[in-house]
Amino acid sequence: MIIGVPKEIKNNENRVALTPAGVAEFKKNGHTVYIQASAGVGSGFTDEAYEKAGATILPTIEAVYEIAEMIVKVKEPIASEYKLIKENQLLFTYFHFASSEELTHAMLERKAICLAYETVEKADRSLPLLVPMSEVAGRMAIQEGAKYLEKPMGGRGILLGGVAGVKPANVLVLGGGIVGTQAAKMAAGLGANVTIMDISLPRLRYLEDVMPANVDTVMSNEYNVREAIKLADLIIGAVLIPGAKAPHLITRDMLKDMKPGTVLVDVAVDQGGCIETCTPTTHENPTFVIDEIVHYCVANMPGAVPYTSTLALTNATLPYAIQLANKGWEKACKENEELKKGLNVVNGKIVYKGVSEAWKLPYCHISEVLA
């Protein structure tokens, strides 16, 4: 198969979908790999390193899309890429369709095969291609939140861990999944008082067992959330419903109950956000203020640490990408239930229920396209 890796062009996105080591694996399996010039530079990989591994460097993004049968990316295509996508071309990347109606319609119109990292799902309901970036984003949420709690950044002027004789900050984490767990661990490690909330009692029991003493677990419901936000200095939104829009756990009217200078970090913003007032921002302009509350809503947080993120992501995606290349997407998805669940859009049809429900568009059962 012919594999194409374009350079990411989303604002401040420095990750790349394939490392030189990944190129070597594709070549070992008999595939051809084309990389757009300087695609890996932001992550520390030179064109020479890709060529040494066996890739061919192409000068433009247009050339990559034109020649490739499978496009491997990190982030969803943006508007300038839509016209480059060909019918029946396989795109393997993060899509987050439930947060973008424009992208959904564009991919339906292009009749591409859209296999989304974020909905590839194991039998135990875990999301293997979301986990590495969730780990990075959860840890970064505390790093960024601590920074924006500083007074010059608009925050309350609080040091997360406090000092002798001064209480540490109160951190509220909404969601006990991968993001929430990593955020709670980081905040606790810095000495903050942490509360983590989830709707799953078994998950809370697990977190109670593994978290340090400065982390409290609380059942998530509207009453408890409303009470907890009154005390919080930093709030992390870490709620995910695979392939669907995140629910709004914090609504606009709740902002009035927060202390001025409280910082909100909505890690779920690329799935619509779990904080109603959050809209996607960029690393260039990461925050905005509503009712004296600082909102940090960068939709590609791991893009700020591209070396770590690229290696973590490609460690997870490469085995699946090799399967797709070796067998073709249809056979690979028939034989691998995990990959099958990654299919979101196929030849102009939505085959993932969460996406059809998000935009009230017709749903086609996956069995109809994999007959």
From TrEMBL:
<dbReference type="Pfam" id="PF01262">
    <property type="entry name" value="AlaDh_PNT_C"/>
</dbReference>
<dbReference type="InterPro" id="IPR007698">
    <property type="entry name" value="AlaDH/PNT_NAD(H)-bd"/>
</dbReference>
<keyword id="KW-0560">Oxidoreductase</keyword>
<dbReference type="InterPro" id="IPR008143">
    <property type="entry name" value="Ala_DH/PNT_CS2"/>
</dbReference>
<dbReference type="GO" id="GO:0000286">
    <property type="term" value="F:alanine dehydrogenase activity"/>
</dbReference>
<protein>
    <recommendedName>
        <fullName>Alanine dehydrogenase</fullName>
        <ecNumber>1.4.1.1</ecNumber>
    </recommendedName>
</protein>
<dbReference type="Pfam" id="PF05222">
    <property type="entry name" value="AlaDh_PNT_N"/>
</dbReference>
<feature type="domain" description="Alanine dehydrogenase/pyridine nucleotide transhydrogenase N-terminal">
    <location>
        <begin position="4"/>
        <end position="137"/>
    </location>
</feature>
<dbReference type="InterPro" id="IPR008141">
    <property type="entry name" value="Ala_DH"/>
</dbReference>
<feature type="domain" description="Alanine dehydrogenase/pyridine nucleotide transhydrogenase NAD(H)-binding">
    <location>
        <begin position="149"/>
        <end position="297"/>
    </location>
</feature>
<comment type="similarity">
    <text>Belongs to the AlaDH/PNT family.</text>
</comment>
<keyword id="KW-0520">NAD</keyword>
<dbReference type="InterPro" id="IPR007886">
    <property type="entry name" value="AlaDH/PNT_N"/>
</dbReference>
<dbReference type="InterPro" id="IPR036291">
    <property type="entry name" value="NAD(P)-bd_dom_sf"/>
</dbReference>
